[in-house]
Amino acid sequence: MTKDCKHQGNITALFPFFVFLGVYLGTSLVIGNFYKVPITVAALLAAIIAILMNRKESLNKKVDLFTIGAGNQTIILMCVIFILAGVFSSIAKQTGAVESTVNLALTILPEKIMLPGIFAIACFISLAIGTSTGTIAALGPIAVGIAQATGYPVALVLGAVLSGAMFGDSLSFISDTTIAATRTQGCNMKDKFKMNFKIVMPAAIMTFIILFIISDLTATVHMQGAHPYQLYKVIPYIVVIVISITGVNVFLVLVIGIILSTIVGFISGAFDVWKLFNVAQAGIGSMTNLILISTMLAGTVELIKHNGGIDKILSIMKNRIRGKRGAEFGIGILVSLVNFCTANNTVAIIVTGPLAKDIADKYNVAPKRSARLPWRKSYRTKS
Question: Both 250 and 122 in a single domain?
């Protein structure tokens, strides 16, 4: 491929990307189940096609390019952080930290503001554990019980849980989507937190007020049963949140969280040394698919970029983008579309991360502004 041709871009270089979306999205739509098709298989197929394309390059060189992309320093560091986040979440869950956090909030929460209170609980838990899904799983059954005890519509109470889960996941320092976004763009976690905080906090305040108004404050609400908790089990979550906000490197944050959770686990008798190893292994295993997807897609994107696919997208967008605002809008639309197609925030960020970074650089978009554009997550460094 000549230099001029590469500069102009090559639409066929994007074929592996379309294969990835087609196999995953197309098949999922046909069978009506987005969880039936393993996304790792779609990523592997896209990687194989990317390597087989471009006959002008030798197979050895294409394989080398793939491994360079997959073994990129940022990608490898991101995968290590994924592993640490998985271990921390797994150990903390085994100690009963999630249950204690939920019950502590339910114990201190005034009964007559239970609905906005549930939202606030979900905000804190998702911020602490870094997963909206985990928050919903932990609070969902309790929310249903609260709805039955108070007379609130079940859908309304679960909506409060879902809203809070989204809030915390947008700000959490150990969320896989946050890790993927900040690492692919070289963004400082603290800067990303500050930028997203300005976006989600007004929405959270409005949501709390609306839920407060909706609540029937004149009704007599009686929550049945006790909500036992152990305050010391919540400490690892609190420490992780506090030291993360101060700007401590996420690697060290997670290591400290793992150490504190391990100490809590031994004190509470949740596990012995051998069970601890198994719990840690389970946490690593929970991140295996994400790590495989990250490396395979990173290698695929490197080949797409080498073959002129990224240049082609940039040349197409150049005719439609007018300045920084247009570039920001373009990045947001791009990530949102991929997110819609893959139904996976993290995968969408990994796939579009390199392109979003190129667009931000080309149009001089301040990194902290480009960091807030993808769906619920962010990207890059200081301005």
Answer: yes
